[in-house]
Amino acid sequence: MLAHFFESYGFSTVLVGFVKEHIEAIQPPRALWLDFPMGRPLGKPNDPEYQKKIIRSAFDLFNERSGPVLKDFPDIIPVKDGRMGYALPVELVLKKNEIGDINKLVKEVNDEINSLKKDYEIAISGRKRTTVGASEMQISEFTNYISEFVRGNIPPSPRKGIGPIPQLKLVVEDLQAFYTETITYRDKVDDFEYLGTWFWEKTKAGRLILCLEAVSLESDNKILKQIVDMSLITPRFWSEGPLPGTSGSGW
């Protein structure tokens, strides 16, 4: 839709997308379809030559004189076992009475974060970038902010104009990014399923967010409960089917 808008003002656009049915329905002026898993718009991580190949293929569409034009990128990156990525198994849905000693868990998460900080700094130095920072909070503050919600409190947001629950979502995303950026660079991991299993089933930070989910599901706060119901805190939904993202199914 934005492509149509920009084109109406004389700007040339090209769309890169994953779900072919959507592109065909919207009919943007120029589009490149990628048969890749969701979340990989440039294909293979840490492979700049391959990424430039995709960008050049998209830019080649500017040579088309009329549209709508839809071209298929020739390469395929398969979706593993028909799934877009990791989805938490049902048995990992916790109840509030299963949370246990939250003070002990907070200490374990902080110890875990401290053990990863050196590797995270090496990752930033190597990549020259990080996605951690959307919450505008220090990494050392993540655990305590999340744990307040687990304790049944709603702490004030440290940011003007952003409420505590939207801020919570950003903090959770930053915490996950800190872990995944560290492990993908340190261990050269390129496997969504492995990353999900590692973070959610093996780390203390994953356990803390599962506890947050447990409290949120039983909360009277409609907004807090809604962000969990929408799988914005934990990955409870995935997509299956012949094309990436075409038929969603939940747990």
Main attributes of the structure:
251 residues; mainly alpha; 2 domains; three-stranded parallel β-sheet; two-stranded antiparallel ribbon; 9 helices
Description:
The chain has 251 residues and is mainly alpha-helical. It folds into two domains: 2-78, no CATH class; 90-250, no CATH class. The protein has helices at residues 2-8, 20-26, 48-60, 102-127, 139-150, 164-186, 192-202, 204-217, 222-229, and strands spanning 15-17, 30-35, 69-76, 237-240, 247-250. The chain has a three-stranded parallel beta sheet, sandwiched between helices. A two-stranded antiparallel ribbon has the order 4-5. α5 packs parallel to α8 (204-217). The longest helix has 26 residues, at 102-127. 25% of the residues are buried. Residues 238-251 have low confidence and may be disordered.
Structure described in brief:
The chain is mainly α. 48% of the residues lie in helices and 10% in strands.
SSE inventory with pairings:
Blueprint: H1 2-8, E1 15-17, H2 20-26, E2 30-35, H3 48-60, E3 69-76, H4 102-127, H5 139-150, H6 164-186, H7 192-202, H8 204-217, H9 222-229, E4 237-240, E5 247-250
Parallel strand pairs: 1-2, 2-3
Antiparallel strand pairs: 4-5
Helix pairs in contact: 4-5, 4-6, 4-8, 5-6, 5-8, 7-8
Domain count: 2
Biggest sheet overview: 3 strands, parallel
- Structural class based on helices, strands and sheet pairing: mainly alpha
Which descriptor suits the 3D outline?
Answer: globular
* Total DSSP helices: 9
Instruction: Identify low-pLDDT runs.
Output: 238-251
Number of E-state strands: 5
Strand order of the largest sheet: 1-2-3
Termini separation: 31 Å
**Quaternary assembly:** single chain
Helix content: 40-55%
Average residue pLDDT: 86
Strand content: 5-15%
Order of helices and strands: HEHEHEHHHHHHEE
